[in-house]
Design a protein that fits this description.
about 400 residues, alpha/beta, Rossmann fold, 2 domains, seven-stranded parallel beta sheet, six-stranded parallel beta sheet, about 15% strand, disordered N terminus, Glycosyltransferase
Length: about 400
Amino acid sequence: MSDHADASFALTEDGAGSDAARAVAHAPSDFVFTFSYETYADAVRRGMMRPPDRILSSLMRSREVRRLLVADPFRRLPRVAASPLLDRDVRFPADDRIAYLRPSRLLREDPVDLDGVAAQYARYDRLLGRAAARRGLQEPHLLTTNPLVAGFAPADWASGTTFFARDDWLSSPARQSYWPAYREAYRRIGESGRSVAAVSAEIIDRIAPTGPAMVVPNGVEPDEWLGLLPAAPAWFAEIPGPRAVYVGTLDSRLDVPGIADLATRRPELQVVLLGPCPDPGYVASLERFPNVHIHPSVARAELVATLRNAELCLLAHRRTPLTEAMSPLKVYEYLAAGVPVVSIDLPPVRDIDDRVLLVDSVGDFADVVDDALDLGPAREELRIDFIAANSWSARHEMVFALARA
């Protein structure tokens, strides 16, 4: 582990970090928050469940935030003009304390050349600064989940800039055309002294910040996971046990050959793949297995009910630079549900909990299924303790303290 990662853990654990957080407890600050590539309406429609959505929810209700400006990423001017009609099902809770900005431009996508990226995000920065001034924000802290904002926006109007990295954008296959821009953004972030909070030490290592850095893994929302055991959804109840559930987008992260091996070697185990499937052809080879069930995304309450009634959960990723840098949200939610987990051995997954069984590859899952099933549901007091120790609110206060520092 690098010096950057060591420093980040020190910030989360030593007394100085706690003292710093307490010192600002009675001095609310102004914040500007920017999404990465999704809008506020996108976040609401998916249930405010991804890490940036959760951060925003915490900012909105935190007593340490005096005033808040929330900014969408750029959208084409016609789309922004039509927002009152297209987004009429989503209402932003604007008031005297919280404001909302929808930046617009003529371009549909970001340019890929560095000069074009720099020009676009200099303009985005000017829009942020003017909106913050109009709303009367005083020395606001810029907290962004967009690497291009963090790297290319001057933010001279802000008291400081903090980048929250939920993924390693530089290893995302879906955004490969922007890798040169992300590489330059990482370089600029690292040299600028701007603070970085990331979901894994691997991401901090790749950015190599010279300023303050902190590892802030993903977490859970206690209100979703506490309470009596809900009934299983009807579609899930019809699947005989034991059921092993994987939650997430069914894309290149999922080890399809590994799932096929598991289904072949353990025919009595029902494997449930639950999530959106942008390319059905990617998982088409699994349709021949009677014990593999592919189900589309469900709403949050139904997801919670599904997991709490499962016998086993899976982190069935391929080993790639992207997955090696992830803090898999699904593992925290699996454990909040009280279900044992089988996972490939990735650095961000180690030491989360003893109920996560780690193996080298998804092809080894079949060898440890019995050991995992023997663990059974977690005792309720242990499940509640895990939820409390890994709540989003506790995670986010660390991020806010880093931004203020």
